[in-house]
Amino acid sequence: MDYDVLILGGGIFGCAIAYELSKYSLNIAVIEKEYDIATDIEIINSTIVFDGTIAKNDIMSTLEQRGNVLIKELAEKFNLSYQPKDMLYLAYCDKEAQKLQKTYEDAVDRGIENIELINSKKVAEVEPNLKKEVINGILSRNTGIIEPYDLALALAEVAFDNGVNFRFNEKVLSIETIAKGSIITTTKNKFKCKMVINTIPQKNYDIEDNLIDEEYKAVRRKINYFLMENEGDKKLSNIMLSISENNQISVAVPNPNSTVGAIIHDDIISMREAKDIIKKQVKGIRNNYISAYYSDTYYSDTIIINDSYVDKGYIKISGKNYSEVTMTPAIAKIISETIRENIKCTLKKDYTDKRRDIFKFRDLSNEERQELIDVDKKYGNIVCYCNKVSEGEIVDAIRRPLGARTVEGVKRRTGAMQGSCKGATCLHKIVNILARELNRDVLEIVKDTKDSNIIVGRMKEFDGI
Ligand SMILES: Cc1cc2nc3c(=O)[nH]c(=O)nc-3n(C[C@H](O)[C@H](O)[C@H](O)COP(=O)(O)OP(=O)(O)OC[C@H]3O[C@@H](n4cnc5c(N)ncnc54)[C@H](O)[C@@H]3O)c2cc1C
Prior knowledge:
Blueprint: E1 3-8, H1 12-21, E2 28-31, E3 47-49, H2 58-77, E4 83-84, E5 87-91, H3 94-109, E6 115-119, H4 120-126, E7 136-140, E8 144-146, H5 148-161, E9 165-167, E10 172-178, E11 181-186, E12 190-198, E13 221-230, E14 239-243, E15 249-254, E16 258-265, H6 271-281, E17 285-298, E18 304-309, E19 314-318, H7 324-342, H8 366-375, E20 382-384, E21 389-390, H9 391-399, H10 407-414, H11 427-438
Parallel strand pairs: 1-2, 1-12, 2-9, 5-14, 12-19
Antiparallel strand pairs: 3-8, 4-8, 5-7, 6-7, 10-11, 11-12, 13-16, 13-17, 14-15, 15-16, 18-19, 20-21
Bound molecules: flavin-adenine dinucleotide (FAD).
Protein name: FAD dependent oxidoreductase
Pfam families: DAO, Fer2_BFD
Domain BFD-like [2Fe-2S]-binding: 382-436
């Protein structure tokens, strides 16, 4: 056997499962078709850590509740940027209020603690920046926001440091079950392994078609995202969510300098429509100050961990859900238990549950910055002025375990190019640092995927320079 366990797909599921299994005496690899982990994860860096209140069924709710607790533990352990933020589920008319009452009763039955059904007066006290009067609301003190990529990367880095092999730029082509395990064929290799954990979302990587979650065929709604600036003193204190009579979901998530708005609708809506919906609900949204707007597919499938072929060494996770990040640590624990019931293994004696330090120049005091610069002068050279990201951080992002190989990889790891200029002043510097550190020509540096080169050629007249 080449491996005990092969994890197909290096998304957040793949990374979390690799982390859980790296604690045991197993030979593990993750196969990912892109140059980096978790490339599918949301580009707006403010994933909500849900609490199970609005989950569509009890199983999803339990996974959210368990994941919610585990994410807080992981954030503490790996120094991740988790911010506790209360969540207000709001009703603006009598019908919505009736629905909300039912949601509250269901949440209590699901054993969710720290939630309260509150009247409009209390809602206004808790969130003074609401514009429209509500009938009532549920206040949850369980929720928060986390940077999902940072979570995935922390888990992957610790898994890597504990011996998991991450195979990037390698696409799974087929899965074949044999007497004792599986043969996985990729664009580069053929591997034999005892167990396969398939996290690849598409159906054609299943060993049997009947494993496919029926909900894959469901009509997909659209999520319309935008990032808006708030007026100085009118920042939201809570995450807000309301579901209208016609099932349109509005979400507003406070970030340090902005509000992330999201409208889940049957279709894509215009930027103006989306903004108007949120503007009616929240005070202080500046009129022409949307810095990002995009639409994506909204998923609310039931996540299915299908282990009906576990005796053949195959587990498939299917379905996509808006709270996948929240559920992921709980799902990884379930998978880890199943694997341990099926393959003999023991806890590693030399396992290290620690992530190597990361220094974020912008979060340090001047004394700490000076100490860092004394050790490495690159920390004194600011590359991204908007977000105060230094050359030292970019070099570290490239050199550390599972280091960045692409511009997007540097952006996600360091926050460079995510400020108001969107990389206009630092993109070329980052391309040059990547080329220098990876010992490549600048022409070879890509944005994210193969063939997404940033610089496509030299101008003839400058060839000699
Ligand atoms: C609009 C939106 C908003 C969301 N908001 C939230 C939120 O607020 N809170 C929350 O908890 N969650 C949220 N989520 C969920 C979450 O961000 C994503 O769904 C999650 O990151 C997906 O992770 P994954 O590991 O399942 O899937 P993916 O990231 O899709 O992982 C699959 C991996 O497999 C790789 N792959 C595919 N094909 C192959 C192949 N043939 N060979 C090798 N590798 C392959 C892909 O490159 C990918 O890396 C949101 C999702 C969406 C879409």
